[in-house]
C-alpha cells in the first residue's frame, strides 16, 4: 500500500522547493511567487480538503501574485553601453542607411545619427546610443560640426 502524504505538507514542500529554486535559478520571481502561493494554499488545504480545487486556487493565486509583483519590479530599459564609446566602420554607411561597425570586438549594425552624412569604411566613429541591436554613431570629425 502506498503512503499518502497530507496535502498540507505537500504544499509546504512544494513551496519550499520553488522558493529554493528561485535562489538557484532566478526567474524574475516567478518561482518565488509560485512558492509563496503554495504556502498560502497549504493553509487553505486545512479548510478545503478537495485537492483539485486547491490546485486551481494555487494557479489563480500564483498568476495574481506574479501580475502584482511585476508591477513593483523595476522596468528593464535599454542596457546602457559599457566601456568603449569608440568603434570603427567595417562597411561604408550611406546617408540615411545602415552599415556595420566593429564595437567591443563584435560586429554591430549601425546607423549614423545624422541622416545626411556618409561614413566611409575603416572610419573611427563614436557610439552615441543603442536602439535595439543597432548602434547610433557619429564620425569623430563630425561631432564638432553639429549644431
From TrEMBL:
Domain of life the protein comes from: Bacteria
Annotated keywords: Membrane, Transmembrane, Transmembrane helix
TM stretches of this protein: 7-30, 36-69
Cellular localization per UniProt: Membrane
Keyword NAD carried by entry: no
NfeD-like C-terminal domain segment(s): 87-139
Pfam families assigned: NfeD
Chief location bin: membrane
InterPro entries according to UniProt: Membrane_assoc_protease, NA-bd_OB-fold, NfeD-like_C
Name under which the protein is recorded: NfeD family protein
Organism ancestry: Bacteria, Bacillati, Cyanobacteriota, Cyanophyceae, Synechococcales
